[in-house]
Structures are given as C-alpha cells and as structure tokens.
Amino acid sequence: MSKKTGICYLVGAGPGDPGLMTLRGKECIEIADVIVYDYLSNAEFLLWAKPGAEKIYAGKKSKDHAIPQGGINQLLIDRAKEGKIVTRLKGGDPLIFGRGGEEAEELREAGIPFEFIPGISSSIGGPAYAGIPVTHRDHCSQLTIFTGHEDPTKEESSMDYAQIAKAPGTKVMLMGVERLPIITAAILKEGGDPKLPVALIRWATTGRHRTIVGTLATIAAIAEKENFQAPAVAVFGTVVNLRKKLSWFEDRPLRGKRVVVTRTRNQASDLSRRLRDLGADVLEMPTIRTETSQGDDAREFARMVVDVNTYEWLIFTSPNAVEYFFEAFYKIRSDAREIGGARIAAVGPGTAAKLKEYHLGVDLMPKKHVAEALAQAFVDEVGSIENTMMLWVRAKGARDVISQTLGKAGVILDEAIAYQTVPETEDPTGAVKRFKEEGADIITFTSASTVECFLDLGLSIPDGCQIASIGPVTSEAVEENGYTVDLEAKEHDIPGLVAAVLKLGKG
Predict the structure, then answer these.
(1) Which of 6, 142, 247, 408 could lock onto 84 through a cystine, CB 3.0 to 4.6 A?
(2) Active-site residues: which are they?
(3) What is the mean pLDDT of residues 428-446?
(4) What's the pTM?
C-alpha cells in the first residue's frame, strides 16, 4: 500500500450535453488515475482521460446494476488507499438523488479526502433544453424536486403525495417514469388538478432528446402509447405551456439524425461539436490514433528538425504534422526564430489554422485542399523551384504524389516522418456498441485511414446509412471497399464536411 493516500473527486457530469460539464469537472477527469462512471454520465468524457487511466463502469439501470452500491463505495476507498486520484462521474449533480452524500460518508469514515464538484442537474437542465423554465414570474415562484424512485428495501413509501399535490409552483420528478401511472394516480387521489400540464423529457440535452406533453390525467397513457422509457425527467406545472413559445433545442436542422464521426480521438471533438450544435445525435467513434514515429524514422525526423533552418520551404499536409513537428522543435529549440527563414506551405485551412496556433502564417495554400493541388501549386505559382531545399513533414505511409511532382521539378526534397497512424482498438465512448445495435443515419469519413480502420473493426455500413466524405482521396477509399459516397464535401475541410452532412440530413 502506498504511504500517500489519494483523493476522490465526486463529480457531477451534468445532464448529457458535453458542453455542460464544468471546467473543474473536466480538470478532475484529466488528472484522474481511476475514473468510475455511471450510466447517465456521457461516456465521451472518457476521451479527456490521460493515457493509462483505469476506467470502470459502475452504471445502474432499473434492476441492472453493474456494481452494487456497496461495491462502488469500497472500490473508491480501495483505489484511493493505493495513492491514486479517483474521479467518480455521476450524471447530473452528485448530491441531487445521486447518492454522492452516501459515498462521501464512506470515504470520510475510511479517512479518504474527497471533494464535491457540483454539476448541472437534469431537473433544471432538461426542462431548459425543452423550452420550459422551471420558474417564471407569471407562473410560479416555487420549485419542488422529488424522486419517483425510492430505496427498494423500504417497507413503505416515504413520499408524501398529499404535500406534492398541494405544493404550489413547478414540480420536477427525477427517475420514476416506469412508475408514472402509480405516481400520477397518487397525486390525483390527493387532489391534484387533472388538467395540470405535464411534460416528459427523455435523454435531456443530448442528440436523443425527446419531449412529450400531456396533463396529470393523461400523461401516463401518452407515455405508454409512445413507449416513452427511462431516463426521463417529468415537469408538472403551468410553465410547461411556455414550451410553445420557448422551444429552441428541438428545432435544429439535424435533430433526430444519428451521425457517426470517425477521426482520431483528439481531432473528433471539433466535428462532433459542430454537428451537435445542429442537433445531431453524434456517435463519436475514433477509428485511428496517431503515434510518434519509431526507430530509424524517429531518428531521421529528429535530425531534420535540428537542421530545419537549412530549408527554404516547409511543407505540412495535415494538422497532425504541424503538431508533431513543433512538439519536437521545442524540445530542441527555445526560440521560434531558430526555425530560420523558410517559407511555409499548407495543404488546407485546417493545417493553416494549426500553424496559426504557433503564430505562423502560410505562404502557399492551394485552392483545392488535396496533396495533388499543393504539389502543382509549387509548379504553377512559385516559379522555378529547381534545386530548392524543401522539407515535407508527413505521416508514415503518406501518398507519394508530392515527392513525385516536386522530384520531377528538380526539388531537393527531404521527407520527415513525424508520426504514424494506427487503428484504434478500444471503444472508449461505447459508440461502436451503439452503432452495432442501433445503426446510424449518416457516417462521416475524414481520411482514407478512417475508412480502412473503420472496416478493420469488423463493422459494415447498413443499408440506408448515407456516407459523407471529406474529399476525393477519402471517397476513393470508400468506393474501393465496395460502398458509394452519397456526398463529398465541396471544401475539403471540417466546415465543408459539416455542410455536406447538413445537406444529407435535410434530404
């Protein structure tokens, strides 16, 4: 046992939208040695974990507990006693029917330091995304939150439905959708208004968000007819009527569309965020990951970085190339001016944007953002390039179109292999499992590598699932594997791909 005791962070993961995670919560995920996460905490948060972090699923659904609560408590204690930083991810807020208080009591009893990190509860976040303010000056000035799911070991219910029926203002019920007929009948029996508006919100704030509306007398029957299942939040009160004016989240153009994002772990988020902003239910499925070059490639790459000031042009054909190059450069150099007077060529705006992060502009970028166009741009726009010293920073296995074209033009070209692409064998977000079970409406491919690695996972694209490709090289890889690209991005970058998905989604 380590002499040093660790710590446990009890983190509220929010209602589901990744953008609703707090900054402190994100920090706790990033530094964690162990992450214990629930069914209702968005699994995409696991992508923020550091390499090697242990990830333990402790989700609980009705009659289906991955780990009993007592086992979870002991797990937190045991890992912290090993000197580890433990982050316990709980859907919503850890202290609003989240059993965070119970876990904290056990940690305190065991002498383990802990910290509460509040989260946005689905009791307020869910209604907000459904266009329902839980308080409003014209409707109410009181909010009651209660649970529809009690401790099953209790001999009798502790819920005072008479008080709930009489309580003024808005009432929000967490959990309990399976018991909705019993709960609404109990409230009606205690004098609840049969005409009181009620809304049910399922998978609130996510791409699977769905809302149905009824009254206290009708909502249970409506939910049964619609096969409306957990997880769901129920809102009782006249504020539900404001939804007609204030609905905003459910009006987005890709609402109801499930879109698969295939990219590296660290690059998928921007595309995913843009699609979520349009209302898509995003399955973020990293199919590849990048690693630093190895062996002789690594030694040659380091030598070329050392000699970077001897080149007249630096060529970058991906954001990854830029990142790996400067990671190596700043291990060797401390002054950006030591890069020398080389001009810089980038294949497209994504690569140019990554260069801008290092405060570097671009001298050459083709109108069409592919390697062929970049190579030809040197010939057409730069003028005589014979005997010009150039360094191409690239991935292992990159197509040789640049070296062939520039070689014919007499360029003295060195090729620095900065990184390599390998298949992603894990399913950190559960997206692969969801895709196998539920399929998708649209799948995006951002490179030929993502196509190959997607298929290497043993996955197939079901009938009716449309394919959006970022550019011609990617489209060629799709077609070589027996599939048809439904739409190729006009601009071969992330905004262009998003535009293609939007066009497909609108039909």
Answers:
(1) 6
(2) 38, 60, 175
(3) 89
(4) 0.78
